[in-house]
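How it folds
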Amino acid sequence: MRNNPAAFGSGAIIGTLGGLIGLGGAEFRLPLLISLFGFRGLEAVVLNKATSLIVVASALPFRAGAVPFAEIHAHWPIILNLLAGSLVGAYAGASWATRLESGTLYKIIAVLLLLIAGMLLFAHGNEAATTPALTGASLIIAGIAAGFAIGSVASLLGVAGGEFLIPTLILLFSADVKLAGSLSLAVSLPTMLVGFARYSRDQSFSVLRANWRFMLAMAIGSITGAFIGGLLLGVVPNSILLPGLAAILVISAVKIWQHE
């Protein structure tokens, strides 16, 4: 089953699902890498991280029409605030993942997928508040803490972390949803690079050398799907889409929890 057409096709489906809600789809890709394509836990995380890096790097220019780079640059204090925690969290999360036994990693992945399902149901689509809930030093500390937690989770799952960053940017920094999507990409890219660099020191990184064509096909499929999902944005109502995607994550979490 580990062939390039299957990788491209599954990537396209996953990218479309992610594009419909403004995410890269990595949270759906990881269960497939484990359950369908048979990669072991850490191998699947590293492959997911590499694929996510390509998808996220492609997504930022695509969004430049809706959110210009100048507007992203104008919010550099928010980006630096979150990066202060997420870079450390990314390194720590990758270090933990390389030391965990496969069975333990599967359990952690399953719990985090359930957490993402909850985020889809209760946090996605919130409107920005008129003013931030916190200000001054309290806001900075909260941003660093949130960044650390998000960076750790992103490294453990091999995802970009947009499912956590976007609600954080909306609820903590009062960013509107379009701006939050682009700011999350600006935070995700350096965060993912740090996690990727940490994984490169581990022998599990060899999975990329052995499966780089497979990974590239899945990445191209994911980018194609994300573009299609963006075009279909709004066609499927969120009242139907989000519970359906959350249900997929719950089923995936159960399967991964039971995976041996």
Summary: DSSP finds twelve helices and no strands in the chain.
